[in-house]
Each structure stands twice: as C-alpha cells, then as structure tokens.
Amino acid sequence: MKKIVLVLFLFFFVVTTGFVIAEEAKPALAPAQATEAQSVPSAQAPVAAPAPPKADTGDTAWMLIATALVMLMTPGLAFFYGGMVGRKNVLTILMQCFILLAIISIQWVLYGYSLAFGPGKGFWGGFDWIGLTGVGLEPFKDYSATIPHQLFMAYQMMFAVITPALIIGAFAERMKFSAFVIIMILWATFVYDPVCHWVWGVGGWLRDMGALDYAGGTVVHINAGIAALLTAILIRRRKGSDHKAILPHNLPFTVLGTALLWFGWFGFNAGSALAANGLAVNAFVVTNTAAAAAGLTWAIIDWIFNDKPTMLGTATGAVAGLVAITPAAGFVSALSAIAIGACVSIFCFIAVAWIKPKFGYDDALDVFGVHCIGGIWGALATGLFASKAINPDGANGLFFGNPKQFLIQLLAVLVTVAYSLVVTYIIYKLVDLIIKVRVPERDENLGLDLTQHHENAYTVME
C-alpha cells in the first residue's frame, strides 16, 4: 500500500509538471494574426501606457537576504525540535523538516503560489499562475512595486515551507513517514494556501475586511498551532508518556535551533516590509525586543514556580515572543513589543504547564501551547496596540481609538481556528483510513530513526 501511494503522488507531480510545460508551450499569436490585430483602426488617439514598475536594487538585495534568512528557519526548527525528542527519533525530526523544504518548494512552484496569491475573490487565488506562468522578473505592484515578482514568490515560499513544519512537534515520535508526506501535501494545499489567500492575497476576503497580519500570526502560527493540537489528539499519546516525562535528549541542539530561529526571524518580520526602509527597521527592532522580553519573562516565571530559571524555558519564551510579535511587527512600537512579549510568556506558560496536563493531550513539543496561543495573543494584541503613527498604511487599534480593529482581528482568529480544525480533521481521517497514520507499537519502541529511515543519529559502544 505504501508503494502504491508513493507512486500515485509521483504520478501526480509528473502530470502537474506536464500540464505546466504544455501551458508554457502554447503558440504565440501567429504573425498574420498579429498584423491583422495591429491594422484595426483605433477609435481614439493612442494614449501612452504608464511605465511598468521597476525593481529597486537595494530592495531586491535586502529581500534576497531576507528570503535566505527565512529559509534558514526550517533547519533551525529541525534542531529546535530535534533536541527535545528522544535520541532514537532525532533524525526523523530532521528528515521531516528537510523533506518539507523539498516537497513544499516544488508544490509552491507548480501550483501553491497560484492558489495562495493569484488575484481572485474565490476560495483560492486561482490557477492563472500555475507553474509560475506570468510570474516574471518585473515587479507585480499589487504585492510589491520595487522587487521582482519571482523574488516575492520565493520569499513567500519559505513561509509556506515552515508553516506545516511547525506541526511536526505535536505528533513527534509517532507518525509514519509515508502518512506524514501525504498529510503535509494535502494540508499545504487545502489549509495553508486558502488561508494565505484570504489574509494576504489580492481579493482575499479577510484582507479586504481590514484584518492585520504583518508576517503570519493567523496564516502561519494559529493555522499550524490548532492543526497541531487536533493531530496530537487524533494520533493519541506516546507510549509511556502517561507515566513519565520524556525529557530532551540534547538541549544544546534546542538552544542552537532557538538561535537560528531568532536570527532567521529578522528576515521573517523585517523582510515583510518588502523593502529596505524604515518599516523594516521598526519590524527588526520590535522583533528583537519582544523575543527578549518574552525570554526574560519565562525565565522569571520558571524561577518563581520551579525554583530555578531553565535554559529550555528561556528558549521557549523567546520563541513565544517571536511568535506573538509576528502579526504586529509592522504596526506597533518597541514599548508595545515589550508588553506583547511579556504577556505572551504568561499565556503560553499557563497553556504548557497547566492546561496541557489538565486535559491530557500529548502535544509533544508544545506547538499548540506556544504557536497557537502565542499567535492568538499576537493577532489580538495587534488589534490593541496597532498605530498608524508606525504604519500609515495600517490601522489604529483599540488603545488608539479604534475598537473595530480588535473585532476584525478576533474574527480572523476565529475563522482561522475553525477552518483549520475542520479541514485538518478531514485530511487526517482520510489518510488514516487509507494507510494508517500511526506507526506500530514495535516501531515506536525501536524508534523512528531506525524503523522509518534505517539510520541512527548516534553510535553507542556497548
């Protein structure tokens, strides 16, 4: 069954690629037709067309760097998660992250970008840009007037890669690799791409309503975080997790991953200005400030409730701060970022330390507790702290005299949660019905590195 499924997906990609090549190979207008078209008399004197937008070299250079920074976040996430699982599952986490970088990159070029960002008011953006047809090296002014359209596409590709990768932490150490690949492709297509279009795409209904999401609070973190919670519940607890805590096998890996994420997040948030300008600088400053405030706050909370400040807690807090500032980075000040960062550690600590044990779900690496809760707070905090003094193209939040913005943010949160829950449930159940999602108990005991990939991270001398 596994081989049949893999062959079907390979066939799908080949057919899609063939369709794209066929589209690109359509003949241009024949010379006779072109001459005839040109000979039709004009009813009016010709009007000079406006000059097309021209790429700015400085903005283009910055966005190339920002794109590379966001790409680095997925390997960073691999180390962040990899250090927290058991030693017999670390390579599986790394493999899952890296294979998503490959799979979603292809999906995005073939059809994902068109579905997410193609102009249109439908469920998706449409199919006009399948295989990057019409996505050239000139700017597309509705998204960015100063960088090549393909660069904007590549930048957004890296967001599409890391979003499903975030979900990995919820079902760590339990999912078949074949099921993982299928679920991630379906989730990227039917969950990420539509939500991305609604919030960021031209014609997206949440965008037109005025929802603010500067760099991915709803599109990335809430979307992935709520899917992670549902997946953790459906796949059930890890064997033995009822009786003992499963501790990180390599905390330095997790710290390295945190550093790479923090570093890459400057591209994630400051890059979302899509230009080398003052707004990018503001996003850079508030990103660092919120991460610092959140990491410090979590360390203090650890000190109060667990007697000692921990490295794992401080790293978790820093990531929570980065999550929370993501939707707000282009709309709030540095002082607001301190409040957002400090508060998110409190909310996420409650979710991780109290709510998860209370309800008994095995969100292995706290994806829901950090990314979904942090993303919800960040989206709502944008509706509180946003200021047109920071970004004239944005909106004022509740604290600046505009309570309507908070309600719009709340609606965007609720829509994202509801949609992601429903479609993730359907995808999971469908795949589980066909090939079973969870590994057998024997494979879980031996570890997924060996049973899914025939490799070991460490050589142990007995």
What name does the CATH topology carry? Ammonium transporter fold
Secondary structure: helix percent: 55-70%
Give the biggest sheet: none
Helix-strand makeup class: mainly alpha
CATH class categorisation: Mainly Alpha
Number of helices: 16
Q: Assign an overall shape.
A: globular
Topology order in helix (H) and strand (E) letters: HHHHHHHHHHHHHHHH
Assign the CATH superfamily.
Answer: Ammonium transporter AmtB like domains
Q: How many structural domains? A: 1
C-alpha Rg, in Å? 23 Å
* Unreliable runs: 4-45
CATH architecture assignment: Orthogonal Bundle
How would you portray this structure in words?
By secondary structure, this protein is mostly helical. It has one domain: Ammonium transporter fold (Orthogonal Bundle). It has helices spanning 2-24, 31-39, 57-82, 90-117, 149-167, 177-200, 205-209, 217-235, 251-269, 278-306, 311-325, 334-359, 367-385, 403-435, 441-446, 448-453. The longest helix is centred in the last third of the chain and has 33 residues, at 403-435. The two termini are 37 Å apart. Residues 4-45 have low confidence and may be disordered.
